[in-house]
Amino acid sequence: MKHQLVTVGTEHGLAVHAADLLEGWAHAAVQDHGTFSIALSGGRTPWVVFAELAHRELPWYAVTIYQVDERVAPDDDPDRNLTHLRVSFASLPVTLVPMPVTTADLQKAAAAYAEELPEQFDVVHLGLGADGHTASLVPNDPVLDVDDRLVAVTNPYQEHRRMTLTYPALQRAEQLLWLVSGEDKAPALAALLAGDESIPASRVRAGRSTIVADEAAAAAFPP
């Protein structure tokens, strides 16, 4: 899969550029078909982007936010991506569709969440781990081979099981937006750009893909 790489100098620059892209895509989607559906991942860098985006004049009433993945943890747990999403967009009239990770039957909950997903996402935002994972598609997890479900539950990873969109669900993205920052991500970014499918991230397919990376992560790929 081909990716467009944009390199920015600082975390603030990354946040501004990513927010610019999202703002433009949101307006275009609403003008085209009346809604903007986006699936968001967690992580420190995205919270900076979301804080920037929340101050933009988007057609928020038409925005529906889904989750790419979520840790199995109690409501309001600081490890939950949902906790941060609620803070980021608390004052805005968006529709937020959280993953039901507090349900006793996680497999049934994953199937129920799959029923709520749109036929196509306007945008799916993804991160990139130093180990090459994206969403909660981590190396050696059986979820990597799931091709008959849109949502699945992982084995424990960094102390939590996760609910995650699978490759078939990510393939519903019209546009991918990857946010990559930090020197430790440089080898994984190089592998992603090379299409090296030994890392989970390189197995994602979608209509279009844009990577916004800081200079530390993209040192081998100068602008």
Question: Any overview of this molecule?
Answer:
This protein has 223 residues and is of the alpha/beta class. The chain has a single domain (4-204), classed as Rossmann fold, CATH 3.40.50. Helix content is 29%, strand content 20%. The protein has six helices and ten strands, in the order E-H-E-H-E-E-H-E-H-E-E-E-H-E-H-E. The chain has helices at residues 11-33, 44-53, 81-88, 106-116, 167-170, 186-194, and strands spanning 4-8, 36-40, 63-67, 69-71, 95-97, 123-126, 151-153, 162-165, 175-180, 208-214. The strands form two sheets. A seven-stranded parallel sheet has the order 1-10-9-6-2-3-5, with helices on one face. Strands 4-8-7 form a three-stranded antiparallel sheet. Helix 1 (11-33) packs across helix 2 (44-53).
Q: Runs with pLDDT <50, length 5+?
A: none
Total beta-strand segments = 10
Specify the number of helices. Answer: 6
SSE order, as H and E?
Answer: EHEHEEHEHEEEHEHE
Strand order of the largest sheet: 1-10-9-6-2-3-5
Main sheet record: 7 strands, parallel
How does the overall form come out from the CA principal axes? globular
- Helix percent reads 25-40%
CATH architecture: 3-Layer(aba) Sandwich
Strand content: 15-25%
Radius of gyration (Å) = 16 Å
CATH fold label: Rossmann fold
Averaged pLDDT: 95
CATH class descriptor: Alpha Beta
